[in-house]
Amino acid sequence: MQFYVLTLFPEMFEPIKQSILARASEKGLIDINLINIRDFSKNKHKKVDDTPYGGGAGMVIRPDVVYDAYSSIKNKENAKVIYLSPQGKKLNQKKVIELSKKENLILICGHYEGIDQRVLDEIVDEEISIGDYVLTGGELPAMVLIDSVSRYVDGVLTQDSTKEESFANNLLEYPQYTRPEEFRGQKVPEVLISGHHENIRKWREEKSLEITKMKRPDLL
Ligand code: 58G
After folding, report:
1. 196 and 110, same structural domain?
2. Distance between alpha carbon 19 and the CA centroid of its chain, in Å?
3. 147 and 210 in one domain?
4. Using a 6 Å cutoff on CB, does residue 7 contact ligand 1?
5. CATH value at residue 13
6. 129: CA distance to ligand 1 center in Å?
7. Integer angstrom CA distances of residue 13 from 60, 126, 157
8. Domain co-membership, 184 together with 200
9. Which of 130, 157, 184 is at the close of a domain?
10. Buried b or exposed e, range 45-79, using 16+ CB within 10 angstroms
11. What pLDDT, on a 0 to 100 scale, did the predictor assign at position 160?
12. Antiparallel, parallel or unpaired: β 60-61 and 49-50
């Protein structure tokens, strides 16, 4: 999967080009292509924003620079264009899995008071929010989306780690334990040491249900 990110702050993405995603990139499964919106300013001071028509606080990103940045992407035929915004549809695991099936995603990160509506109306297919709060830019939401979607791209993680986990079945995960067998007087649940696979499976299923009832009854 190719991610194309339109941003004024491409350097913010350096950290996610590491870890899980670096391994996926090596395998050629995922690539993050950063497009600096400022490179498309025709202004001698590389200005990309201006004051809002009708007045009001702050600055708005001009539509022409965003359009030119978008036009510079070559493989945009079957790409989905996403604008990260607090007005978007809330991201959840179902949407993450749906997006992971796309070949190319173009992510547009706004700043200041946002981007001129006309270019958004022209190029955006879907507006997505990572939660009901306002951030100074769309970069952190774009990274959240890239991280969550990448995990489902074939070959990035083992099947096991994605198919059994939280939300895949609308249940929270059962608790995990490792050595030592006793920690500050607390023992690891006996069943997990028993080696009885069917009992372990049943215990974990019961725990998942119990934890979901207690912490997230809205999921049931
Ligand atoms: C209102 C405020 C409209 C995504 C800011 C547009 C982006 C939160 C999220 C904006 C974001 C989220 C400018 C800064 C979008 C623009 C960006 N804040 N909840 N802020 O996913």
Report:
1. no
2. 15
3. no
4. no
5. 3.40.1280.10
6. 8
7. 23, 22, 21
8. yes
9. 157
10. eeebbeeeeeeeeeebbbbebbbbbbeebeeeeeb
11. 65
12. antiparallel
Nearest CA to ligand 1 atom 4: 85
Last residue of a domain, one of 137, 157, 177: 157
pLDDT digits (tens, 9 = 90+) for 195-212: 999 999 999 999 999 999
Q: pTM above 0.70?
A: yes
Domain coverage including residue 185: 164-219
Closest Cα partner for 131 from 97, 166, 178, 92? 92
Residue 150 and residue 20 in contact, taking contact as beta carbons nearer than 8 Å: yes
Whether 129 and 50 map to the same domain: the answer is yes
Are residues 169 and 69 located together in one domain of the fold?
no
DSSP state of 111: B
**Atom 21 in ligand 1: which residue has the minimum CA distance?**
129
